[in-house]
């Protein structure tokens, strides 16, 4: 089992544990805000399952029907996660509205808060694991799950403070108002997750920093060529796709041109990891006198 897959499985077990604790906190207190926190945890479990399925699909090698691989499956998972976050937020808003219309006093507030704090600490530790390992493994699904969980940790902290204030002051209406605030924050989180994932589905280019790195490598390692133009990039899951035209002197041999391409590809793979590179070699009369000039 790959490291990415192991973490995805771990997310399901952590999500179920935290969900159970938060539901217990809500059952003890009757707090709408704690219910909103628990509802978000149901999304954590569902999206962890979606991430697991997506990572398994993305790990499949390229085949006749999918010659470029299955890497984009992780982006579909992240988009689904964003949609589910938004749905959860709308459910919370509905519960908050009913709570504002008919606020109810809290029961065993501090017992419930203690349980919720413990659940939040578990989430915080797992959030750190997801984000750090997701970046290292270049996994959009793990990163999306981690950033969503970070929002859950922050909102859980706000919920704890708000419910404590409602219990101390006796102002029961603070509880549903806080639940509404949590829902708005969750909506924003869902939109950010979807926007990031849609950029991958739309074949968005790599960052400016990575593009500068690619240009520098081509310029440095293409000795014997004249220029590289029409450089294009995109990313899909853990993989980066790079293609460009390499102009060489029309008199050099095919073998010499091939050696230049091999040198460039090796350097790009060493710098960027999992990359798919396509180089179209052209004779010198095809030069555009633009793009990447060879040092």
TrEMBL record:
It is a multi-pass membrane protein. Gene3D superfamilies: Cation efflux protein transmembrane domain, Cation efflux protein, cytoplasmic domain. InterPro entries: Cation_efflux, Cation_efflux_CTD, Cation_efflux_CTD_sf, Cation_efflux_TM, Cation_efflux_TMD_sf, CDF_Transporter. GO terms for biological process: intracellular zinc ion homeostasis. Residues 208-283 form the Cation efflux protein cytoplasmic domain. Residues 11-202 form the Cation efflux protein transmembrane domain. Keywords: Cell membrane, Membrane, Transmembrane, Transmembrane helix, Transport. The chain crosses the membrane at residues 7-29, 41-59, 75-93, 113-132, 153-174, 180-201. Its main location: membrane. It comes from the Bacteria. The keyword Membrane applies. One of its GO terms (molecular function) is cadmium ion transmembrane transporter activity. Belongs to the cation diffusion facilitator (CDF) transporter (TC 2.A.4) family. NCBIfam families: CDF. This is Protein p34. It comes from Paracoccus homiensis.
């Amino acid at each position: 089992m790959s490291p990415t897959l192991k973490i995805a499985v771990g997310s399901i077990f952590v999500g179920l544990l935290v969900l159970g604790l938060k539901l217990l906190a809500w059952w003890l207190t009757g707090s709408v805000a704690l219910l909103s926190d628990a509802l978000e945890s149901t999304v954590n479990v569902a999206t962890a399952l979606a991430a697991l399925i997506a990572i398994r699909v993305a790990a499949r090698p390229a085949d006749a029907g999918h010659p470029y691989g299955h890497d984009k499956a992780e982006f579909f998972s992240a988009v689904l996660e964003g949609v589910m976050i938004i749905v959860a937020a709308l459910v919370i808003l509905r519960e908050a509205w009913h709570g504002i219309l008919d606020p109810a006093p809290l029961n065993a507030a501090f017992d419930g808060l203690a349980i919720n704090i413990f659940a939040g600490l578990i989430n915080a530790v797992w959030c750190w694991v997801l984000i750090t390992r997701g970046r290292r493994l270049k996994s959009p699904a793990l990163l999306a799950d981690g950033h969503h969980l970070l929002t859950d940790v922050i909102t859980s902290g706000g919920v704890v403070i708000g419910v404590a204030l409602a219990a101390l002051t006796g102002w029961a209406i603070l509880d549903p108002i806080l639940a509404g605030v949590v829902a708005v924050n969750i909506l924003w989180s869902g939109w950010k997750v979807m926007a990031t994932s849609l950029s991958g589905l739309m074949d968005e280019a790599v960052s400016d920093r990575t593009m500068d790195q690619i240009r520098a490598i081509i310029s440095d390692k293409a000795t014997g060529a004249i220029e590289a133009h029409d450089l294009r990039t995109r990313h899909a899951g853990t993989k980066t796709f790079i293609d460009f035209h390499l102009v060489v002197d029309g008199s050099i041999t095919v073998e010499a041109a091939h050696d230049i391409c091999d040198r460039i590809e090796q350097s790009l793979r060493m710098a960027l990891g999992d990359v798919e590179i396509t180089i179209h070699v052209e004779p010198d009369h095809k030069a555009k006198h633009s793009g990447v000039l060879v040092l």
